[in-house]
């Protein structure tokens, strides 16, 4: 034997290096010319045909006839009169017949006119094949083989069991998986070769034979001998991962076509001849139609012969047809018909594949492996994207560290200032204490009169000096405001109480101005810092170019605050080129936070703040306004720290909203937002800026948080700064994008021939939760890569995912495997309902396969997709739609990012592309 079976065990099996997956190949067609028989020789008949080489037969008669018909015919193999049956077997039948050992169905036909040598040839081929099979079995003890034999004949359109001839005609049934099945056909498990020989003898004896003028022993029926070979590696016997190769080889000895005039038949023979000719005519029609590319209806069902042999006629069995013919001139017409049939058969393709029957557990394991592979792919993609942005993350961490340091510094300075104030008040040694005293004396405005703002620089108090050095007199104003408030409300003669050692002005501030807005600020600031850190980590993939641009272009300042910005932001770079627009939002947020913390207040802002304080009703709200703060303006800082915190918190809240807002919106805002920096002429002139200044980006964020100036009121209203609205908008953006991405993924699945179980798994996993964004992205990226790979991109031929994705055949196999599970997973009623729903005739053949072939075929129809996913989920055993089958497959997806809610899918998608 020339071939060998390799890869036993779990792997598929090859024969002679054939691919184990389904393969399309043409029917192998050979022609055998028998010698002139005695009758023909007795009539001095001459031989019209000659095989001039191993593939060509030529007609060698008169010139007149030669001009009308083709004289040379080429086939896969032609055998002249001298060829032995052994040779015919070796060169035309063996390879295909023995495919049965590698799990492929096969069929060997003999076709030809009566008395041309069909039975003579097929008997030999059957015996040679069986001998080789047993020879193989003996040489391969590592596998356990089970051979089963059955035999039937179709006589006058009735199917007879040759191993149980008295059983009466057999019915044909349509089985969705196996095709046409002969009901109740006897199948005998063979003990050994001798057992088979005995059975062959029985068949021979049982077959309908009659004497005709042309053949004393003419077969009056089509005979089909069927040998099924199951094999399983002994090593895996009874184990979970065992799988069985199972295939059938058919030996078909057709009845011979005949002419009543030639056979001089009448009565029974004539009737037989009619049936024979009719079924052969159908066979010829089937072959002719198949040879033309299966256009139109293939009349398999017109005869029992073609119904039974449907799998061999353009189906899933490797097929060889040996056409026998007489060379006699008297049969030239029949011979030409035979060659015409052979020529058509040559064009017909079959699609054989290895029939590997897996155990349930093996099937689950295979699916498990597939899912594990996908999980691994996801992980790799994720880590690849993470590492690509690790430098950005580092910068963010540095920034966070610096911010924390700054906060600590601010806290320290605030505490220091506060204690100084209190000490001074207690000691009554500075103007502040005087103010309190004055207040108690009801000297309205005395503070402001005695210590006008312009004179503040003359004071020696370090706090004031510090404030003055910053160019701001807010502390004066602030205290003045406090004094006037207390003047109005403080009870008379309360000085003693007020100045008592255990009483702090803060108590009064609390009492008359509401609770300390700074209370708990440190904690909140720390938390905010932490949140910010998390957010930055979450968006580690954001691009930093744009942010860099912001900072570089920020208003130059010698102030410490600006140093903070330039020293700690990841945006620090001299790279002025704007980054991708999609990253603007996040960067805005980050830089805005920084700027809010570090920016010095302007005198205008101080005034505004003062006005704010004067408005008691709005006190709390105003204190929370995100006014810029100087880290050195202690009092001011103290009172405005909540602004920083509120701003930070607002940033956090609106982070996603900003990220998901369309870029255009941002551009527009960037270009139209007024510059809040103090200007002598504060008229904003955005059009004067040819390019949006980075500082404006920062300002945009600030302004998003604070109330607009009165003249900006309209803008504020129109700007839709309402947080709820933004949140809703953000949610709706996400949903829209989610649906779009899901649709794209579904289409890519289809284009990449992704396994249905995989599709279903992910489809059910994605429920529209923003926390699934990362999975959605990774899957999308994976598919886009695969699609590029499949459609002309850089192709890694040996890449496993490429092979898997590219395999339509694998997908077909998966469909078939799924169809097998329908019996288990659906009741008869449920199946019937499904067939009806999916437009499949409940009596049609292979209806379960038909249904599974329809699953996931229309990526544009979401109802179809939903139903497909539901069915696959049920077949595979997902407990319920939406429940990821991790338990079943023993999978544990990597934990999701801790804060995926703030993960910007849009940003990461852009950054990954
Ligand atoms: N290649 C051959 N060499 C020698 N004898 C042959 C050859 N082919 C056929 N014969 C003989 O021709 C006769 C008819 O052969 P066979 O019965 O196989 O024909 P058939 O095609 O099966 O006919 P039918 O269709 O009528 O059953 C037999 O006696 C057989 O031995």
Number of helices: 37
How does the helix and strand content classify structurally? alpha+beta
Poorly predicted sequence stretches spanning 5 or more consecutive residues: 1-19, 429-721, 793-806, 881-913
Q: Report the average pLDDT across residues.
A: 65
CATH class of the domain at 28-358: Alpha Beta
Tell me the helix content. Answer: 40-55%
Highlighted features:
single chain; 913 residues; alpha+beta; Kinesin; ten-stranded mixed beta sheet; three-stranded antiparallel beta sheet; 37 helices; 21 strands; disordered N terminus; disordered C terminus; binds adenosine-5'-triphosphate; ATP-binding; Kinesin_motor_dom_sf; microtubule binding
Overview of the structural elements:
The chain is an alpha+beta fold and about 900 residues long. Among the domains are: about 30-360, Kinesin (3-Layer(aba) Sandwich); about 735-890, no CATH class. It is about 50% helix and about 10% strand. Strands 4, 8, 9, 10, 11, 14, 17, 18, 19 and 21 form a 10-stranded mixed beta sheet that branches. A 3-stranded antiparallel beta sheet has the order 5-6-7, with no helix packed on it. Strand 5 (about 50) and strand 6 form a beta hairpin. Helix 19 crosses helix 26 and helix 28 (about 725-750) packs parallel to helix 30. It is elongated. Residues about 1-20, about 430-720, about 795-805 and about 880-913 have low confidence and may be disordered. Adenosine-5'-triphosphate binds near residues 34, 115 and 217.
